[in-house]
Write a structure and sequence with these properties.
heterodimer; A: alpha/beta; five-stranded parallel β-sheet; 13 strands; about 35% helix; about 15% strand; B: alpha+beta; globular
Chain lengths: ~375, ~375
């Protein structure tokens, strides 16, 4: 299949593995964080760690939109969906995210109507087809999905769809990365930058990471060779003592982002003063809400939203996993009490969640390719 | 300089993995208070429901293997009995409709049990207002599918429910087939060294249904593979004495069957991504939707476990039938890791292929 198979070529992967291994300095351990859950998914799905030497550890970052939604917001959404004549729509990933009294699937079993959509625009179709219902789109995601929510709201206003609103849970990636950089319990050597988010915001917003924190960033694509090449680029920077922002995903990511998409977000949404992230706590200016001029499309104003804060289950260590402090398997409940079928934490829900990816794909002894082993520095 | 953490970390990880395997072997507990869509998806939630509710209530030695068909001894006759319900939406789709699906689904459950399908029953639940013309089309498709499979529909039932209490038409079929003495094709028979084959491109049916719903604005030239496997199975069994197990890959796809093999036979299953036949249209649509063709439903494909030294014979026997023209050897049964399915990816890495938790796509059959 064109445009896919080229990026999964095993021969090229072997060649890259050898070059990466050759860049490792003897005795040094490297921790690289892939910020985006899409990368985590690719890494596990294709068995990419088989190509890396033991001295490189990939740390899974907070860029999984579903994983960072706190339980209270799930409860709020179910409360909204329980109002008379409400149809709620959301992305499929959200359906299994546990609130304090079950997930959307369970709410539907109790009588709510929460439908899965592939695009927020589908919510508008549902709204037009059901004029006697009120359709609420549970919007989640980073800057990647915020433009499609914004465009949907703009279209709803243009065509006068009054029975549609947005329960906005969009978050922004930069404050989350900053929170991780400022976290005292973590030492990272570099970042595999989020590719999809960067199609919207571009590469400039990451410059502070290279400049102020001295960590290299390589914005990466989502095919396995993309990620392997990005790791090579990061290792080369580290070897040469550079810390810069580089763009491996230049076939898709413009350096300055997508001005049309940014304008649509800016037109309809503004930063919240603060927002709670699952496991990371409250982070200031880290999420979006509808602008006052679009109040008629803001479900938080159109409905009475309880806004109850629900503490994470005690056993859940999603926060540590999201910050990369713990590997998924190091969490106390991983794989026993917390599994994809009965998730306690959000990281076990989405296929992009580090725990779900590890549980579904990675529970086996790594069989590293010879290239990743042969140039391993010998240990005395 | 030695890093003292490296080895202990690997050791601790293995301990955790062992603990998880133990947890996975425990009898699953049904925690939900109500039925959710996951319980019908054919993955872990369905297995849990069946074991916690149905197996618990009906427990008997004939049911316990949880195979697609029960094996019965009635007087001198050895029979296979199976039943299946169909709620597919939409009712009509490229390559078939709920009618031929309902016949082929039950015929195939008998065929892969090694039985010669003979007689079917058909129960209809119809919604008030359902067009008679549609019901006629469905019945005619069932007639044609039954004729093609060499079975007769010999008894049936009809119920009508008020408008809004069902979605057009649901069909439930049961089937009886004659078992050949000594033939046991249960997945527990798989042994290390066996080869694993699939009879053709996977995922056609699921992707067809997904696109036929028209919700995705994706078009692709693909149609359901719904077909009777009776001839294909008969040809395979006649040519290859070393066929150990057969399953038809329906809801949950080939990945689900492979997991059933690994768990029932206490073996590992290793497959090669490159070897698995998938049409480009199906791969493309699956890639766009973020789903794995290994989990997408088929309605006319089987997975065969065959003694390793007879793999080529089995491949030739499958390919001799038009339905098996694109059959392929996709992997092997291994001694380790017990209970797990692993895949060598095209990219050259390895990963687990686990049971799906919930199907993103309800009402596929």
């Amino acid at each position: 299949m064109r445009f896919v198979d080229e990026f999964r070529d095993a021969d090229k992967a072997h060649a890259l593995a050898a070059r990466i291994a050759a860049l490792c300095e003897p005795g040094r351990q490297y921790k690289l964080m892939e910020v985006c859950g899409g990368h985590t998914h690719t890494i596990y799905k294709h068995g990419l760690e088989d190509y890396l030497p033991e001295s490189i550890t990939l740390v899974h970052g907070p860029g999984c939109p579903v994983c960072v939604i706190p339980m209270g917001r799930v409860d709020d959404a179910i409360h909204l969906a329980s109002q008379p004549d409400v149809i709620m729509t959301s992305f499929g990933d959200m359906m299994r995210v546990p609130g304090s009294n079950g997930a959307f699937f369970d709410a539907n079993a109790r009588g709510t109507s929460i439908k899965m959509v592939y695009s927020p625009l589908d919510s508008l179709k549902i709204a037009k087809a059901n004029p006697d219902k009120r359709v609420v789109f549970m919007a989640i995601g980073f800057e990647t999905t915020a433009p499609s929510t914004a465009m949907t709201v703009l279209r709803a206003r243009a065509q006068g769809t009054a029975n549609f609103s947005v329960f906005c849970n969009h978050v922004t990636i930069i404050p989350a990365i900053k929170a991780i950089l400022d976290s005292p319990d973590l030492r990272l050597d570099g970042f595999i930058g989020p590719g999809h988010v960067s199609t919207i915001i571009g590469c400039r917003p990451y410059e502070f990471i290279a400049r102020s924190y001295g960590k290299p960033v390589v914005v990466a694509g989502f095919e396995p060779l993309d990620i392997l090449q990005s790791i090579y680029m990061l290792m080369l920077q580290l070897r040469e003592g550079r810390s810069e922002v580089e763009n491996q995903y230049s076939r898709v990511v413009p350096w300055n982002g997508n001005p049309v998409a940014l304008k649509a977000i800016g037109e309809t949404m503004e930063l919240r003063p603060y927002f709670e992230w699952r496991g990371l706590g409250f982070i200031s200016h880290s999420a979006l809400k509808m602008r006052e001029s679009y109040a008629d499309f803001d479900a938080e104003l159109q409905f009475d939203v309880p806004g109850v804060r629900v503490a994470d289950p005690k056993a859940c260590q999603c926060g540590e996993v999201l910050k990369g402090v713990l590997k998924p398997w190091e969490c106390k409940v991983f794989g026993t009490a917390c599994t994809p079928e009965t998730p306690i934490g959000t990281c076990m829900v989405s296929p992009e969640g580090a725990c779900a990816a590890y549980y579904n794909y990675g529970r086996l002894n790594r069989q590293r390719v010879p290239e990743a082993i042969s140039i391993e520095p010998s240990r005395p | 300089m030695t890093n003292p953490r490296v080895l202990p970390t690997a050791g601790r990880e293995q301990q955790v993995l062992d603990r998880i395997e133990r947890a996975r072997r425990r009898r699953p507990k049904l925690r939900e208070e109500r039925i959710t869509m996951s319980h019908g998806a054919g993955g872990k939630a369905t297995h849990t429901l069946i074991e916690a509710i149905f197996l618990d209530a009906f427990r008997n030695p004939l049911l316990e293997p949880l195979e697609d068909a029960a094996r019965l001894q009635v007087g001198a006759a050895s029979l296979a009995l199976t039943t299946d319900s169909f709620v597919v939406s939409p009712l009509f789709f490229p390559g078939g409709n709920i009618g031929d699906l309902a016949v082929n689904g039950t015929v195939n459950d008998l065929a892969v049990a090694g039985a010669t399908p003979l007689y079917l029953s058909a129960g209809f639940i119809l919604e008030e207002g359902f067009p008679v013309a549609d019901l006629t089309r469905i019945a005619e498709s069932m007639r044609d599918a039954a004729a093609a499979a060499g079975v007769a529909v010999v008894t049936g039932d009809t119920k009508v429910v008020q408008r809004g209490k069902a979605d057009g038409c649901y069909i439930s079929t049961a089937g009886v087939g004659a078992l050949t003495a000594g033939v046991d094709l249960g997945v527990a028979n798989a042994r290390p060294g066996d080869a694993i084959l699939v009879s053709g491109p996977i995922g056609d049916h699921g992707v067809t249904i997904m696109l036929a719903r028209g919700e995705l604005d994706i078009e692709a030239d693909v149609e359901s593979d719904t077909a009777s496997l009776a001839d294909l199975v008969a040809g395979l069994l006649a040519a290859v004495p070393g066929v150990r197990a057969l399953r038809d890959a329906t809801r949950g796809g080939v990945a689900t069957i492979l997991n059933e093999i690994a768990k029932a036979a206490d073996v590992g299953v290793l497959i090669t991504e490159d070897a698995i036949p998938v049409r480009d249209q199906v791969r493309g649509a699956a890639e766009l939707l973020g789903i794995d063709p290994l989990y997408v439903a088929c309605e006319g494909r089987l997975v065969a476990v065959v003694a390793g030294d007879q793999a080529d014979d089995a491949l030739a026997a499958l390919r001799a039938n038009p339905l098996g023209a694109q059959a392929a050897i996709v992997g092997e049964v291994t001694a380790e890791p017990v209970g797990l399915v692993t895949i060598k990816t095209t990219f050259g890495g390895t990963r687990i292929v686990d049971l799906l938790v919930g199907d993103p796509l309800p009402r596929i059959c």
